């Protein structure tokens, strides 16, 4: 199937679940938030948008994509075309901090106001923000214990959404082995909660942040969407697999329901401005932010888990994808879903199709940063597989999506972010 365009789109708007970085939400006045607001003001494209008042949920008749008049779908059509025209990778922000990126994109394109749930569990000042959100929302309290704060639910009452992009999850593989119940509760029960809210509000388009982990130990490479899933090596992977199964059942039961399950490979990088990037709480769970913290002197040594895998240099091989490419993949998925009137469950890999070993990533980062990365080979980590890379031809053919950024771009942008923000958002 050929490329899709958004020109015939006549949608309402999207809501986003996932609260990676909440720069633009009215939930806190902590220093990191105001710092990020200040930074955002420096960015030309965000300047106008930043004039918003704190009440980001205010009804706005006729604004943007017609958020205030969401049922006026025809009037949305031309505005969505505008989004498509302006949706260059430079404007599309990324997923490691999903909410901020998507909100910023929305602002840059005058698109819809996304609605975001708390509890900001993987971002700085989470307790403070959570507290503020719950205080603000006391009056609107809803008896739903897992998942979404009342503000999120009340947005469904006030607006008509066309689709939901569901980023929210716990995602650390090793933590999932220690705290499986938390992972099943957030990732599986939380998703069911969200789907129930969607059902109650007749919203039938869903873009899901799935993962290459659903393939488990690869039977063959590259990984193709129609391969068997489920032989997962850790609880995190199983939560993603289980949710995919739930979504398949939902699509079977409701022929109007539409899911694109985007199976991310290894998202890395940062916004090329160096202003938005990954700021993990505590010790990074992923390779690239760990390398970045070593390069900036925040950590002494990188631990490389195993050099006896069946790979050219013995270290694990992964398919790294730049977050800007990943972000574009989501926009294309939403456009595709609408323009093709897609129903049912459709998994799509988002990867480059090329694998890099841990040592190759280290050397690429050294080249980008000009800094030597000190590393030490240690035992393999339980649950790790040897090699994983995608067949991305479905994304290419059907979404008209292709990864445009290579490992050098990924390292350069990560380095720029880390160098500008050695303490992340706490500067
Ligand atoms: N980063 C990766 O390597 C990777 C790979 C494959 C898939 N994914 C998926 O992509 C999505 C985004 O991941 P990310 O890398 O941006 O991680 P992230 O931790 O930055 O973002 C996930 C966000 O979900 C929020 N969250 C957690 N529990 C929540 C809850 N109960 N209610 C509301 N929000 C909650 C967290 O606060 C966090 O901000 C996740 O679903 C993840 O599983 C990530």
TrEMBL record:
EC annotation from Swiss-Prot or TrEMBL: 5.1.3.2, 5.1.3.7
Enzyme class: isomerase
Domain of life: Eukaryota
Region annotation Disordered: where it falls in the sequence: 1-83, 104-144
A biological process term (GO) from this entry: galactose catabolic process via UDP-galactose, Leloir pathway
SUPFAM superfamilies per record: NAD(P)-binding Rossmann-fold domains
Catalytic activity: UDP-alpha-D-glucose = UDP-alpha-D-galactose; UDP-N-acetyl-alpha-D-glucosamine = UDP-N-acetyl-alpha-D-galactosamine
Pathway: Carbohydrate metabolism; galactose metabolism
Keywords, sorted A to Z: Carbohydrate metabolism, Galactose metabolism, Isomerase, NAD
Protein's job: Catalyzes two distinct but analogous reactions: the reversible epimerization of UDP-glucose to UDP-galactose and the reversible epimerization of UDP-N-acetylglucosamine to UDP-N-acetylgalactosamine. The reaction with UDP-Gal plays a critical role in the Leloir pathway of galactose catabolism in which galactose is converted to the glycolytic intermediate glucose 6-phosphate. It contributes to the catabolism of dietary galactose and enables the endogenous biosynthesis of both UDP-Gal and UDP-GalNAc when exogenous sources are limited.
The name this protein goes by in its record: UDP-N-acetylglucosamine 4-epimerase
Biological classification of the source: Eukaryota, Metazoa, Ecdysozoa, Arthropoda, Hexapoda
């Amino acid at each position: 199937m050929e490329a899709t365009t958004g020109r015939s789109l006549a949608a309402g708007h999207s809501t986003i679940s996932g609260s990676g970085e909440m720069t633009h939400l009215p939930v806190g006045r902590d220093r990191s938030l105001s710092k990020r607001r200040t930074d955002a003001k420096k960015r030309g494209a965000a300047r106008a948008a930043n004039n918003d008042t704190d009440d980001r949920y205010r009804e706005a008749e006729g604004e943007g994509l017609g958020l205030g008049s969401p049922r006026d779908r025809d009037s949305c059509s031309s505005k969505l075309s505008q989004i498509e025209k302006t949706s260059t990778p430079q404007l599309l922000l990324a997923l490691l901090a999903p909410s901020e990126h998507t909100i910023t994109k929305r602002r840059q394109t005058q698109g819809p106001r996304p609605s975001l749930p708390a509890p900001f569990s993987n971002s700085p000042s989470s307790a403070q923000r959570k507290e503020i959100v719950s205080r603000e929302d006391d009056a609107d309290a809803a008896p739903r214990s897992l998942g979404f704060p009342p503000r999120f639910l009340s947005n469904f009452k006030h607006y008509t959404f066309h689709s939901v992009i569901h980023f929210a999850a716990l995602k650390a593989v090793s933590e999932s082995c220690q705290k499986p119940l938390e992972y099943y509760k957030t990732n599986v029960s939380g998703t069911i909660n969200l789907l129930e809210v969607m059902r109650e509000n007749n919203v039938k388009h869903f873009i899901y942040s799935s993962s290459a982990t659903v393939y488990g130990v690869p039977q063959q490479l590259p990984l193709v969407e129609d391969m068997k899933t489920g032989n997962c090596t850790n609880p995190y992977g199983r939560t993603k697999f289980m949710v995919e199964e739930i979504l398949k059942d939902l699509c079977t039961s409701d022929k109007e329901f539409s899911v694109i399950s985007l199976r991310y490979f290894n998202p890395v990088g940062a916004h090329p401005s160096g202003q938005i990037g990954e700021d993990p709480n505590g010790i990074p769970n992923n390779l690239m932010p760990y390398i970045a913290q070593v390069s900036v002197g925040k950590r002494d040594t990188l631990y490389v888990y195993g050099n006896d895998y069946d790979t050219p240099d013995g270290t694990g091989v992964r398919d790294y994808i730049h977050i800007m490419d990943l972000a574009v993949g989501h926009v294309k998925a939403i456009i595709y879903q609408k323009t093709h009137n897609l129903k049912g469950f459709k998994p799509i890999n988002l990867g480059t199709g090329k694998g890099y070993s841990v040592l190759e990533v280290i050397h690429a980062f050294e080249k980008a940063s000009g800094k030597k990365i000190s590393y030490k080979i240690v035992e393999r980590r339980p649950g790790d597989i040897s090699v994983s890379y995608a067949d991305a031809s479905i994304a290419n053919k059907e979404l008209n999506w292709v990864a445009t950024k290579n490992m050098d771009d990924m390292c350069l942008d990560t380095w720029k972010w880390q160098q500008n923000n050695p303490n992340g958002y706490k500067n």
